[in-house]
Amino acid sequence: MPKPLLPWSEDLLEYNFGAGHPMAPLRLALTHRLLADLGLLDAFTVTDVAPAEDAALLRVHEEGYLAAVRAAGEGRSDPARGLGETDNPIFGQIHEAGARVAGSTLAAASAVWAGRTDRALSLAGGMHHAMPNRASGFCVYNDVAVAVAALLDAGAERVAYVDLDAHHGDGVERAFWDDDRVLTISVHQHPGTLFPGTGYAQDLGGPAARGSAVNVPLPPGTGDAGWLRVLDAVVAPLVAEFRPQLLVTQHGCDSHGLDPLAELVVSVDAQRRAALLMAELADAHAGGRWVATGGGGYEVVSVVPRVWAHLAAVVAGRPLDPSTAVPESWRADVTGLADVEPPERMTDDVDAAYRPWSAGYNPDDAVDRAVMATRGAVFPLHGLDPHLT
């Protein structure tokens, strides 16, 4: 089997909204260093990253928006298009930086679809909030939607997208709202409590694609047991029924309890288990074709590098034991960069256990009620009984 693909360039670190912004390029730099120090880069074919061309971006974004992003790179804010807002400050070369992120995920998806490899990882990708004519939630161009649109243009008839970010994957959902070739599943904190305020269980897709959009809004405080139970109860059966030709997954790790921007409590260990499940679903139902991306995640030392290193190891077919020691070389680098104590091991020292959905529904549990709301709304549209395991 060919090695999985990892598009990477130091130029990806130029996607930088400035000092103090949560989307710090340091999170990518530290992740890449951790992959190197763990010996994981050798498991990938690492390729350079070219910015996505306008033709690819225009499959998702409006021409006037691309012009506005280029103008933003010259210092012209456009708050009506989200450019220059607090979340999305403008900076020089913002178009080129955003297009390069899109190019990373586009290259990953294209390589898998063409059969050059079965798996690929776009660490810088997962910018799932960007809309056709507006930057949103730290996202300038929607690299995931651009890549999925390219897959459809190349002949794909069924693509499944699973979004594990704490925030609703609204931009990707919106791009394919009325396209039954794309199944979007988002597991996120309840929109009544977190940006972007969308993603309710009854949001099901457009009239030509009812059931193609799936949302599981979770109460703040949801931890490992509930979060993993959702993947078992909703994600796994729907992907199995849809039988995608390629699985795309977004692994924003802002669901961790240390993340400053969300209120879920999902450990590094549970997110490792989620990556393993995505690999299993791709192998069982998508012919092994899997493209994984990064996404949100704003605890840049203890959380993001470890979660994405576990993800990379799973993509590479070399899962790390959670008890693996964090390399001393990496810890020394971190100590030199930030006044924080780096983690010693690749685990949060939890079991990340959960009760499978087949064990029964508990109506007194808030997460189970959220699961049943989604299953009740969506499963009949896929010919599935929401009450059966």
UniProtKB/TrEMBL annotation:
<dbReference type="InterPro" id="IPR003085">
    <property type="entry name" value="AcuC"/>
</dbReference>
<dbReference type="GO" id="GO:0004407">
    <property type="term" value="F:histone deacetylase activity"/>
</dbReference>
<keyword id="KW-0006">Acetoin catabolism</keyword>
<dbReference type="GO" id="GO:0040029">
    <property type="term" value="P:epigenetic regulation of gene expression"/>
</dbReference>
<dbReference type="InterPro" id="IPR000286">
    <property type="entry name" value="HDACs"/>
</dbReference>
<dbReference type="InterPro" id="IPR023696">
    <property type="entry name" value="Ureohydrolase_dom_sf"/>
</dbReference>
<dbReference type="Pfam" id="PF00850">
    <property type="entry name" value="Hist_deacetyl"/>
</dbReference>
<protein>
    <recommendedName>
        <fullName>Acetoin utilization protein AcuC</fullName>
    </recommendedName>
</protein>
<comment type="similarity">
    <text>Belongs to the histone deacetylase family.</text>
</comment>
<dbReference type="GO" id="GO:0045150">
    <property type="term" value="P:acetoin catabolic process"/>
</dbReference>
<feature type="domain" description="Histone deacetylase">
    <location>
        <begin position="21"/>
        <end position="313"/>
    </location>
</feature>
<comment type="pathway">
    <text>Ketone degradation; acetoin degradation.</text>
</comment>
<dbReference type="InterPro" id="IPR037138">
    <property type="entry name" value="His_deacetylse_dom_sf"/>
</dbReference>
<dbReference type="InterPro" id="IPR023801">
    <property type="entry name" value="His_deacetylse_dom"/>
</dbReference>
